[in-house]
Amino acid sequence: MFKISITAVAVLLSTGASAVDLHDFGFPVERQAERFAPVIRENICKIFNAEVTAINSYITSNNLPDSLISTNLCSYIRSRHGQIEESGITFRYGIYSSGGGYQGDIIEKVDYTRDAELIILSQEGVTQYLFYVNGDVVLRDQQKTDRVGYVLPGYGASYNPYGDQLLSGVFNRVKSEISVRDAQYNGPEDGPRLSACAAGELEFCVPGGPDNSRYWSLEDGFYPKTSNTNTTLDTSETSSFGFNIGAELKGDRVGPSGGVSVNFSLSNSRTVGRERKVLGVNTVKYPSDIGVEVNYNLSPQAIYDLYAFGYTGVPSSLAISDERLGSYAWRELDITSNASWREYINSQNCTPNTERSMSFSHKLYIERGSYDLDGSGSSARWDYSTDSQYSRTWRDISLSAKTECQIDSDGNYFRTFKPGLLF
């Protein structure tokens, strides 16, 4: 569960150019740290923009000789569909033992819930993109049949029921991908670049094109890190967000910051989450900093060490499956993650009054099945040939937005979200 800690500090210095100055507004404004659940993460920008609105109102009502601060410096975007709840995704696969052949089928229904949020923070020379995905994959129904279709008792995973090291009713080879893509299309000249990105040439996926790679970086977000089995899975407990608004108002200023300095800060803390007994995690960072993929794989060595369960004498159950495998491996997989990108804005990648389209996405490949284990001890491995049977599917969710490049009267570059142009 994410918790957002927000600290707002606004300090404005007077110019002394008017009988009424900004000191009369009551600065400095201080806000104690507040904690918010993920469902109200949008309050990050609401709090910042409430301060901006108050400052702009004071500037306007007192005819101070300064332009207004843009409310697009902090923008919150959520999927127009809200939380997506997809129930009854069906997985069906056969059970085959090396000695007895076909033993029956497993038919399962899985629910997949996900939600996506994007926060764009714009300041002088830097734009940050914070992409959050909240979700889980949960086994809701499972039916096992024998060779003639008779429904068998028991609910849960099983291991070695026929004496040939077969593991059934589990997640395996699940892949979670969080990434960003350039989606700008101005005409046929952009076709080859977008096609190259789609074909896997990832340098062409960088927003702004390959030449912008030097100014584009993937910051440290939250996603499960590479680890061995028999450990715990890290989860993100708290994200801290703060901002500072300060100004030396010296006459008329033109630009999105209204002549004031705006600085944002973001940090994530990490804590130990739920126990994960046999599920290994491998994390791969994509080239050109466009994203990261997390692979969840069952460890054959950890499985080999288990006692058999899920047969007539010891029928499977939720409690036994959780005890032997851990819930992540067979019935409830948390795919919550986030990533943050930082783009440095300058004359090389920012032409004033031009737009750019970007797409932030999360793609999940889900696999469930029955897997044949060969070998023993440290030499144990999965045999994905005839005796292993599995069912696969994939789902995705994305947020796309347009941004606009701007320059102020002092020559400072900004890239801000352009409202009303989600696509």
List the helices and strands and how they pair.
Blueprint (H helix, E strand, L loop, with lengths): L3 E10 L15 E8 L6 H19 L12 E5 L5 E14 L3 E23 L2 E20 L5 E2 L5 E2 L6 E6 L2 E9 L8 H8 L17 E3 L12 E18 L11 E17 L2 E7 L5 E8 L1 H5 L13 H8 L1 H4 L1 E3 L2 E8 L10 E20 L6 E3 L5 E19 L5 E5 L6
Parallel strand pairs: 1-12
Antiparallel strand pairs: 1-2, 3-5, 4-5, 5-6, 6-7, 6-16, 6-17, 8-9, 9-18, 10-15, 10-18, 11-17, 12-13, 14-15, 18-19, 18-20, 20-21
Features:
423 residues; mainly beta; nine-stranded antiparallel beta sheet; eight-stranded antiparallel beta sheet; 21 strands; elongated; disordered N terminus; signal
Textual characterization of the structure:
- The structure is a single chain.
- This protein is mainly beta and 423 residues long.
- It has one domain (4-417).
- Helix content is 10%, strand content 50%.
- It contains five helices and 21 strands.
- The strands form three sheets. Strands 8, 9, 10, 14, 15, 18, 19, 20 and 21 form a nine-stranded antiparallel sheet that branches.
- A hairpin with a 6-residue loop joins strand 8 (158-159) and strand 9 (166-171).
- The protein is elongated and about 85 Å long.
- The two termini are 29 Å apart.
